[in-house]
Specification:
The structure holds two protein chains of two kinds. By secondary structure, chain A is mainly alpha-helical. Chain A has 14 helices and six strands. Chain A starts with a helix and ends in a 17-residue tail after the last helix. Chain B is α+β, with helices and mostly antiparallel strands. Chain B has two domains: 117 residues, Immunoglobulins (Immunoglobulin-like), CATH 2.60.40.10; 280 residues, ABC transporter involved in vitamin B12 uptake, BtuC, CATH 1.10.3470. The longest helix of chain B has 39 residues. In chain B, 44% of the residues are buried. Chain A: Its main location: membrane.
């Protein structure tokens, strides 16, 4: 068993692009879920807003790539209104139902044959990122770094930009939640009626929080799209939201560091277990006393099964995650 | 209509071209290929069924699963049969390179698809052109442009499909709604209980070769036990620990994630077909075509739904369930054993979900994600009917099923579930408590 290779992969994964886009998406989800107490299970749809915003501007509108950001924000606002207007006045689980449903419908729309001209169907959109690539100070093909941290110039560029964004949004979230606005939002999580009786418009605050968290999630989608060099509809399935949620709960809700460290830890554990399972099944299926336990093509399913079990155990036994504060973990504030 | 001739003519020219190429290749490399063939002695005919839709005059092809293919020799001896998988392919082993006839059973095509050219339901494979070890033939389904069915017939056919889907959704969502009503838990893993029933039926039917009629009741019973197990193992314990309903909702997401991947692990990612009642001929009832199987499941489904409604309305237990669903404290104060009622709700919900899973599996096909694909429609249905209301789930689910199928008349069928979201949002804006919910503050 090639232990060193596995450890190398694991360390790389914990700072790689996957951890970055999870961290950004988790920061956004934290504003919804950790700070405001809104059960948004459609973060993948907000990510898709960003990716398709970028892809569509560059591909179809013939303007610069950066116009994708305002277009993405526009999509996020539309999506927030669609899921927010009917549900934010109601009990928390209505938002959960509508966001899961909307995220799934968004995915069906962007991959449909009908709107292929607009969203590129199942193949998605590709070759839109040249403008972004050209800004890279590194040689795209050259290898940079040392030891396990060797990356091609292009990956290194995206990783640096990505961690820069993680830093910016961490700082932003931290400051935002110290501001009067943040205190109101946290008050909504604890007791909506109390905040309402102080004369605050709870509905408006929730909507603002939905848009702000959504815009942060949008940047996660953009980083993903820029790294892959393409926008694929199936990168935004509802399962992605669940994984991000697991990473968030793992790190700790309502804590900035929780979103970032949780995402790193999630990928660390995920890639470690994936690599170990693959190593064990590499020379044929794993058998224990003649009974086939697992084959190599089942590794993915088993790994995601672990994610589900992990999410359940976390919520039940350690809802505050690594960094959270049990008092602040008020999923059921009321 | 004219557009149809384009690909048709192209198809013929393609065949001619293919024939020329094949015969050239055969002429050049006949010796070597015959030697290799003699070595392994395995020949296959691969039938591919593709649905073709013209998008801006460019044909878009998607594989069609579940079509029955039959391979016979030219004198009518049956060589092999098969059903196309999710990739639209069906591989049939044949003994030698010979002349074969490949038939597609047009009634087995899912979702009322028809062949573009009805005359091409049988394709001949010529011995001369059968040069490699596999020979591929393709059937195209899609709009022929000369469809004989009138507007009203299409409406009626869709209505029939909608009623069938509605019965299944109503059946599956009763448990979901009652669990929300009695325990306050929004259980996102309910779709997996539907899949559980279907996969279990598949296991009994295909692996143990027990017909559905015998194994069905057992599967339904086990589905109920599965519901009980989930309650006993997870949600009852969480409630006892004082974990709130929103946390329980997240736990149910984790459960759903775990179960769907467990099913993927055990069952694999491909869609498969139950063997019982898989090949049937449509009965023509007036303008509507329906297989006896679908007719039976529809009638059975209606009987089940009516008896659920009746027992909720009349029996002591049904009254107790409705009381707990309405107000747990009040029901408990009147001497109803709420824990027992909750257990019964989980059992009944699991059993009904498993029944829905079997019906869905007979109707379409079995896959690891079939339940979670339905769960959104179930939620739309119970929101329409009123979260927590049993009648609401029956009526709402039934309506959503019809609505979704009927909307496929006007929008592409790949997007036919989108209008359900529209209903969901509309209901939440106009009447968030649903049709049967009491007007109360839900926020």
């Amino acid at each position: 068993m090639d232990l060193i290779k596995i450890i190398e992969n694991t360390i790389r994964a914990s700072i790689g692009v996957d951890a970055i886009y999870f961290a950004i998406a988790a920061l956004g989800l934290n504003i919804h879920f950790g700070y405001t107490g809104m059960l948004n299970f459609g973060q993948a749809a907000f990510m898709a807003c960003g990716s398709y915003g970028l892809g569509m501007t560059a591909q179809y509108f013939g303007v610069g790539l950066w116009w994708g950001i305002p277009l993405g924000i526009f999509f996020v606002i539309i999506l927030s209104l669609i899921v927010g207007i009917p549900t934010l006045r109601l009990r928390a689980d209505y938002l959960a139902i509508v966001t899961i449903a909307t995220a799934e419908i968004v995915r069906l729309f962007v991959r449909s044959v009908k709107f292929r001209k607009v969203f590129g169907g199942t193949e998605g959109i590709s070759s839109f990122s040249s403008q972004y690539r050209d800004l890279s100070p590194f040689e795209p093909g050259k290898e940079y770094g040392f030891g396990p941290f060797t990356y091609t110039g292009y990956s290194l560029y995206t990783i640096l930009i990505g961690w820069g964004l993680v830093g910016i949004f961490s700082l932003f979230t931290w400051q935002l939640m110290r501001s009067p606005w943040g205190r109101v939002v946290k008050g909504i999580r604890e007791d909506e009626d109390a905040v309402r009786s102080l004369g605050k418009n709870v509905y408006a605050y929730k909507m603002q929080a939905l848009v702000i968290g959504g815009v942060i999630g949008m940047f996660a989608g953009m980083i993903l799209a820029l790294d892959r060099g393409s926008v694929q509809p199936d990168n935004y399935s509802r399962m992605v939201t669940f994984y991000i949620l697991t990473a968030l709960v793992l790190g700790g809700l309502a804590k900035v560091a929780g979103s970032v460290v949780g995402s790193m830890l999630f990928w660390l554990l995920f890639v470690f277990s994936d690599n170990v399972l693959r190593e064990m099944t590499r020379n044929g299926p794993l058998r224990i006393s003649g009974v086939t336990i697992i084959e190599s093509n089942q590794v993915g399913a088993v790994n995601y099964m672990f994610v589900g079990i992990g999410l359940m155990l976390l919520i039940v036994f350690r809802p505050q995650g690594l960094f959270g504060n049990r008092q602040e973990m008020a999923l059921d504030g009321r | 209509m004219l557009k149809q001739t384009g690909p048709g003519v192209g198809h013929i020219w393609l065949k001619v071209l293919l024939a020329v190429i094949c015969s050239t290749v055969a002429g050049l490399g006949f010796a070597s290929s015959s030697v290799s063939a003699a070595d392994d002695g395995e020949f296959f005919i691969i039938a591919s069924v593709q649905n073709q839709v013209l998008v801006n005059d460019v044909p878009e092809r998607t594989p069609v699963a579940g079509a029955s293919i039959k391979v016979t020799t030219s004198d009518g001896t049956l060589i092999g049969e098969g059903i196309t998988g999710a990739d639209g392919l069906c591989k049939v082993a044949v003994p030698t390179r010979d002349n074969y006839l490949i038939d597609i059973d047009t009634t087995s095509l899912p979702n009322g698809l028809t062949l573009i050219d009805a005359a091409k339901a049988q394709v001949k494979v010529d011995q001369v052109l059968f040069t490699t070890n596999t020979k591929r033939v393709t059937f195209f389904t899609g709009d022929s442009g000369v469809s004989g069915s009138t507007e009203i017939e299409r409406y009626l056919q869709r209505l029939t499909d909608g009623i069938r889907l509605g019965i299944i959704i109503a059946m599956c969502s009763v448990g979901l709604s009652l669990v929300i009503g009695t325990t306050g838990v929004t259980n996102f893993a309910h779709g997996e209980m539907v899949t559980f029933g279907a996969l279990l039926a598949f296991f009994f039917n295909v692996h143990l070769n027990i017909p559905i009629l015998i194994s069905g009741p057992l599967v339904i019973l086990l589905g109920g036990c599965f519901g009980l197990l989930i309650n006993w193992g997870i949600f009852a314990r969480l409630t006892k620990r004082g974990i709130g309903s929103n946390s329980q909702l997240v736990v149910s997401l984790g459960l759903s994630l775990m179960l769907i991947n467990l099913f993927l692990f055990l069952f694999g990612g491909r869609t498969k077909q139950l063997t019982s009642f898989s090949k049937q001929v449509n009965l023509e009832i007036g303008p509507i075509g329906i297989t006896p199987r679908d007719l039976t499941t529809a009638i059975l489904g209606i009987i089940i739904l009516l008896s659920v409604a009746f027992s909720l309305q009349r029996s002591r237990l049904g009254k107790a369930i409705r009381a707990v669903s309405d107000n747990v404290q009040l029901a408990s104060a009147t001497g109803i054993d709420t824990q027992k009622v909750i257990r019964i709700v989980w059992f009944a919900g699991g059993a009904l979900a498993a029944t829905g899973g079997i019906f869905r599996g007979l109707d379409e096909q079995v896959s690891f994600s079939m339940g979670s694909d339905l769960v959104f429609l179930m939620f739309a249905g119970i929101t329409l009917g009123g979260l927590g209301s049993a009648y609401g789930a029956l009526v709402g689910g039934f309506f959503i099923g019809i609505f979704v199928e009927m909307s496929a008349l006007f929008i592409p069928s790949e997007l036919k579930v989108a209008p359900a979201l529209f209903i969901l949002i509309l209901v939440l804006i106009v009447r968030p408590q649903g049709i049967f919910g009491r007007s109360q503050r839900v926020g």
